[in-house]
Design goal:
Elements (H helix, E strand, L loop, with lengths): L3 E2 L3 E3 L12 H31 L1 H8 L6 E3 L2 H35 L27 H21 L14 H15 L24 E3 L4 E4 L4 E4 L8 H9 L3 H11 L6 E4 L4 E5 L1 E2 L5 H4 L7 H7 L3 E8 L7 H15 L6 E7 L3 E3 L9 E2 L2 H9 L12 H18 L6 E8 L9 H6 L7 E7 L4 H13 L3 E4 L6 H5 L1 H6 L1 H4 L11 E2 L3 E2 L6 H22 L20 E9 L11 E8 H6 L3 H4 L4 E5 L5 E3 L6 E2 L2 E2 L25 H12 L6 E9 L4 E14 L2 E8 L5 E3 L9 H13 L6 E2 L4 H11 L8 H12 L10 H8 L1 E8 L4 E5 L11 H4 L7 H10 L7 E3 L12 E12 L2 E13 H12 L19 E6 L5 E4 L9 H4 L1 H9 L3 E15 L19 H8 L6 E14 L11 E6 L17 E2 L11 H9 L33
Parallel strand pairs: 2-39, 10-11, 10-14, 14-15, 15-16
Antiparallel strand pairs: 1-2, 3-28, 4-5, 5-9, 6-8, 7-8, 7-20, 11-12, 11-13, 17-19, 18-19, 19-20, 21-22, 21-27, 23-24, 25-26, 26-27, 29-31, 30-31, 30-34, 32-33, 33-34, 35-36, 35-39, 37-38, 38-40
Length: about 1150
């Protein structure tokens, strides 16, 4: 039966009608009449409560003077101004890293030739060996004096050095400036003829005092750098000691950079020899994961030391590659993949008498070496089957075909190409002419690297010859511990062409890495996930034995939020300038936190629902408010491979990943840094953990910032109208200084909070640059809001009338400048033990603020009510939140300035609802029995997204109506009471079982216990999974323009009977996220990366220099000492 819709909604279905009630039409009219009366009464009560407690009229008066301060902004000018500030920031960091690179080059050129052996008396501070970092004052003074003495050695050594052409530090005056601050601060001259003995016993290098520095969020020592030695490198190795000795003086430029730029963070010099100078000095974590940190596999290092490259790995899968050999071959592949990045392309083929791609859908192609594709390759390493014998000619033929095709089409890295051969040996003769015909005669476009797993001397000679004649490198892998060091030599080989540019440095470009996390490598997510599942398993066991007091402390840290430090790193290659140096000697780098980029964004100017983003040259997100990087407090495995089109979702009806032309063209313009005026898009986005749907028109503007592209987004209806903050008059700033300083420490008073983030950053940046903070437009606005709303702390006139009746917990006010005020009226123990103000102090960034502005723009009469999702109406501390946006308006100009709100007890509203819905008066004015507590009527109050706000069944509170009454929700959709939209989450994570290993490999034996307790524990074992990127879809609902409870976003729904009737043909669409499965040719379970690689292969732009051939290297071809030969 058709739904009847009037002011409110009443459903009468013949399949549910009681036999005692046959007056269907009359009954419907009565109930519709009563629902209208009930909704009017509830609406009046709620409106009275919300208006009086939030004092919205007082707020409107406070901001009314601003209606004459409104101005219209030009988005193109705004984005250019922001881009200018970001470019200044980036240029400053780039200049600092250039000075590190130049000074390292200068010091290395003039380094001593004196050998340092393992038994020498040269010692250094090792980040892994520091046993004491307390701030002992005597030790601090001792280290400071030692530093001064060492600096004298450097000063004296550099006084009369010969100039190094094309190096800024050849200028003696420029070089001496590094020592000026030392002399000014310490007042000590250096006596070069009488230098003190610099020897210190090794135990002195175990205690390095450090002091906490908020800029680094660590205990550090700013006097010197510290050495970090790669795990597989011996710290007393000759090359390491000699490198550490000549690079000591880099501390001068580190400290000078730090002095010139107080926003600078970590600075590095990293050597291929396995050591890194890290400034400032810091004690490395004892956590095993961080101990294994190797900078030579980090993107900032690998992108600076090599040019972009296409790599094909040929993996021998002959029957003899079993056991240890297979394990070693897999380790080699993993280590190679660790050195690749977003600007590289790769594929892995296994070969015997045929070739097969490791991942089926990657056949006959190269895929971008982003984390998603690399992860899929790694996961499939244990899967391939060993069989037959290996025919190298077959494998090489496939590799040459693919690389030749990509050279012709120029759809990959457009620079270097390499083939990596991993084999036990050469099983039978191969076509030796293939290298002559397909490589040498074409000018050696491809380098060949050979990795031998075996001890055959004849095979070693042949594989070495292949590498040497094809500008590559050969390595014999005999031990797991040697794999990384030997594999990394390929980077040094590929750095030669960059180093041959050392005389002019004409093509040198700064390398800006993609988004990464400090000290985290690509397998951090898997490692943390294993810890997370260990916690889950432990809790299951402890629950079983009823001994939850036993806590395994090793896991405790993984139950807490980890403070991930997101950043990009700017780096430069460091040239080897001596005649005999053919390879780069290292990489200079400086970390640039993403928070520094955010600090340049005038969020107040962009306003609510406006934002800024940055994309890389590959179209991936560097910064975006909808970029969700964590899952269950763990870093997502592919958090830095999120594409622009995956966060900006068009409001259309397309199937998943069939992105519309408008968004794809916008992405192309952003990546190529093409100028455009503005682009308008209709988009859909979600709030409240993807449970609420919002639709909007947005305007996009962009500007280039180095290799990245900055974009800003302004909402269509109110995004261009702003308050002219520079024109706002505020009281003398001295009167507000004490209040502001209290805010900066955390709270201005009991009832106000200063949000960490926007204003906090603005204040401190202005302080850093010695600008009076009160001149900043944002702070001017903030001070105005403080003064204009100071009445908020006064008593509410009608508080007694409402506070007790509705148990009003808090009232609050958030303004467009970032001010957040609240008043606690009734103390309540909040369910998650975190106060409302601590959870909601980000003002215009809060979902309730954004939602109120969007919904109230067209209807300023409504308050927006919501309850926590899937809560319980039985709890006394369940709160209903009511919000409303406040605007200033003049003529056609209108802009939001604040949102007011309150929280009151759900049980109190239920009492109001219960009292109201017990009343029943029919059309003749007589009492009747058609109430919500009667047997034949079920009542609900739903919000505009179809979540239950009130019900006679407390367990339904906060749940989606379709989960409770699917049939009814389907009818509501059919009758256009609600409309639904399919929403996609392209950043989802699914917990999946790992791929099954090759069945031909011997599997480890599992011994099962036979004791009762053991068997019981075995049954409690959880299924181990790993976090896998996936796509989700969900259907989200919005209320159409129909009558609601007056002045609210609520719908009163009355259902005849218990609502249990249903139809089997109902195809109900739920907000519950479901994984999207794509149809690909691949037979593996990992269809998403395959689909992306084949269907979403969009524009990329290479910006770094390409060094792929230099005639100077021709003289090295065939010289075995440059291609891995280490015996005579």
């Amino acid at each position: 039966m058709k739904l009847a819709v009037s002011l409110i909604l009443y459903v009468l279905s013949s399949c549910c009608v009681s036999s005692k009630i046959k007056k269907g039409r009359d009954l419907q009219l009565v109930v519709k009449h009563m629902v209208k009366l009930w909704s009017l009464e509830i609406g009046e009560k709620l409106t009275e409560l919300s208006r009086n407690m939030t004092r919205e009229e007082e707020v409107e008066k406070s901001f009314k003077p601003l209606e004459y301060k409104m101005t219209r902004v030009n988005g193109a000018i705004v984005v250019q101004n922001i881009a200018r500030d970001i470019r200044k920031l980036m240029d400053k960091k780039a200049d600092a890293v250039m000075r590190i690179a130049e000074y390292a080059e200068f010091l290395s050129y003039h380094r001593s030739n004196e050998s340092l052996l393992a038994n020498s008396t040269y010692y250094f501070f090792n980040a892994d060996n520091i046993t004491n970092n307390d701030g002992d004052l005597l030790r601090q003074e001792e280290v400071a004096n030692d530093t001064l003495e060492i600096e004298c050695y450097w000063l004296c050594h550099q006084q009369n050095l010969e100039p190094l052409p094309n190096n800024i530090f050849s200028n003696k005056t420029y070089r001496e400036q590094l020592f000026v601050r030392r002399k000014n601060e310490k007042g000590r001259d250096c006596e070069c003829e009488n230098l003190p003995n610099r020897y210190r016993p090794p135990q002195k290098y175990l205690h390095l005092p450090m002091i906490y520095d908020s800029r680094f969020d660590e205990n550090v020592n700013l006097n010197l750098s510290i050495a970090k030695i790669a795990t597989n490198v011996y710290e007393r190795e000759q090359n390491v000691l000699e490198g550490l000795r000549w690079s000591e003086a880099l501390d001068l430029v580190f400290k000078d950079n730090n002095y010139k730029d107080s926003t600078l963070t970590w600075q590095y010099f990293a050597s291929p020899r396995g050591f890194m100078r890290h400034y400032p000095a810091v004690q490395w974590s004892d956590e095993r994961y961080y101990r294994t940190y190797d900078f030579r596999t980090r993107t900032w290092y690998t992108e600076a030391i090599t040019s972009p490259k296409d790599v094909i790995i040929l993996l021998d899968r002959s029957g003899s590659m079993r056991g240890t050999r297979r394990a070693m071959s897999m380790q080699i592949v993993n280590q190679i993949l660790d050195t690749l990045n977003d600007n590289d392309f790769v594929n892995v083929y296994t070969f015997t008498n045929t070739t097969e791609p490791l991942v089926g859908c990657f056949n006959d192609t190269l895929v971008q070496a982003n984390e998603e594709n690399l992860r899929l390759l790694r996961e499939n390493l244990p899967v391939y089957t060993l069989q037959f014998t290996a025919d190298l000619t077959v494998g090489l033929g496939k590799a040459f075909d693919i690389l030749e095709n990509f050279r012709a089409t120029r759809t990959s890295s457009k620079c270097n190409q390499a083939v990596m051969i991993i084999t036990e040996g050469i099983d039978y003769w191969y076509d030796t002419d293939i290298f002559e015909l397909r490589n040498k005669q074409k000018g050696f476009p491809i380098r060949i690297f050979t990795y031998q797993i075996g001890d055959s001397a004849s095979d070693a000679k042949e594989l070495e010859s292949i590498a040497c004649k094809n500008m590559g490198y050969w390595a014999n892998m005999t031990d797991m511990g040697d794999i990384r060091e030997k594999m990394l030599n390929y980077l040094n080989v590929m750095s030669r062409n960059i180093n041959y540019d050392r005389e002019t440095k004409a093509r040198r470009k700064f390398i800006w890495s993609y988004l990464h996390v400090d000290l985290a490598d690509r397998r951090l997510s898997n490692w943390l996930w294993k810890k997370y599942e260990g916690i889950r398993q432990r809790e299951v066991f402890l629950d079983f034995v009823k001994r939850k007091n036993l806590r395994m402390k090793t896991y405790e840290t993984y139950e807490k939020d980890m403070n991930y430090k997101y950043m990009t790193t700017v780096s430069l290659p460091v040239y080897g300038r001596r005649e005999d140096e053919v390879e780069l000697i290292g990489v200079a780098g400086i970390d640039v936190p993403i928070d520094l980029f955010k600090a340049q964004i005038p969020f107040d100017l962009l306003g609510v629902n406006g934002y800024a983003f940055i994309v890389t040259n590959n179209g991936y997100i560097l910064m975006h408010p909808d970029h969700r990087t964590q899952f269950k407090k763990i870093l997502k495995p592919t958090f830095n491979r999120v594409d622009f089109v995956e966060v900006e979702i068009l409001d259309d009806d397309r199937d998943p990943r069939l992105f519309g032309d408008t968004i794809v063209k916008l992405r192309e313009k952003l990546v190529n840094q093409t100028e455009f005026d503005t682009v308008e898009l209709n988009v859909k986005y979600s709030l409240n953990d993807m449970k609420r749907l919002m639709l909007a028109k947005r305007h996009y503007f962009s500007a280039a910032v180095g290799p990245f592209t900055l974009g800003i987004v302004l909402p269509h209806r109110y995004g261009f109208i702003k308050i002219n903050k520079s024109d706002i008059r505020v009281p003398p700033w001295q009167d507000l200084l004490s209040k502001l300083q209290k805010c900066l420490s955390r709270r201005e008073s009991e009832n106000s909070i200063f949000p960490k983030g926007k204003v906090y950053v603005a204040y401190h940046l202005h302080s850093l640059f010695c600008k009076p903070y009160f001149l900043a437009d944002l702070l001017n606005s903030f001070l105005y809001d403080m003064e204009a709303t100071k009445w908020f702390d006064t008593d509410i006139d009608t508080a007694d009338r409402f506070t007790s009746k509705y148990i009003v917990h808090k009232v609050f006010l958030a303004t467009h400048s970032g001010l957040f005020r609240w008043k606690t009226l009734k103390e309540v123990i909040e369910s998650d033990f975190v106060s409302f103000e601590d959870r909601n102090n980000q003002a215009i960034d809060e979902d309730w603020y954004r939602r109120a502005v969007e919904m109230n723009f067209n209807d300023e009469s409504i308050f927006i009510y919501s309850v926590p999702f899937e809560t319980s109406g039985y709890e006394d501390n369940t709160m209903i939140t009511s919000t409303k946006a406040i605007f200033v308006e003049r003529g056609e100009s209108k802009t939001p300035v604040a949102v007011v709100g309150l929280q009151f007890n759900h049980r109190a509203m239920y009492e109001l609802y219960n009292i109201t819905t017990k009343k029943c008066i029919d059309l003749d004015g007589k009492k009747c029995g058609y109430t919500c507590e009667s047997d034949f009527l079920n009542c609900f109050i739903l919000d505009n997204n179809a979540y239950v706000v009130l019900s006679d069944e407390p367990e339904f509170i906060g749940r989606y109506m379709g989960d409770i009454r699917p049939y009814i929700m389907s009818l509501l959709t059919e009758e256009h009471v609600y409309f639904h939209k399919r929403m996609y989450d392209y950043q989802a994570i699914c917990q999946k079982l790992p791929p099954e290993n090759d069945p031909s490999e011997d599997q480890p034996k599992v011994y099962k216990g036979n004791k009762g307790d053991t068997e019981a524990f075995e049954k409690l074992a959880i299924n181990k999974t790993f976090p896998t990127p996936c796509d989700h879809e969900m259907w989200l609902y919005n209320l159409n323009e129909i009558d609601r409870i007056p002045n609210t976003n609520l719908l009163f729904l009355a259902i005849n009977g218990d609502g249990s009737c249903s139809r089997s043909d109902i195809d109900h669409k739920s907000p519950e996220p479901l994984e999207i499965l794509y149809d690909t040719r691949d037979t593996t379970k990992n269809d998403l990366p395959c689909y992306i690689a084949t269907m979403n292969n969009y524009t990329r732009r290479m910006y770094m220099g390409c060094y792929n051939k230099n005639k100077k290297e021709d003289k090295l071809i065939g010289d075995r000492h440059y291609c891995g030969h280490y015996w005579d």
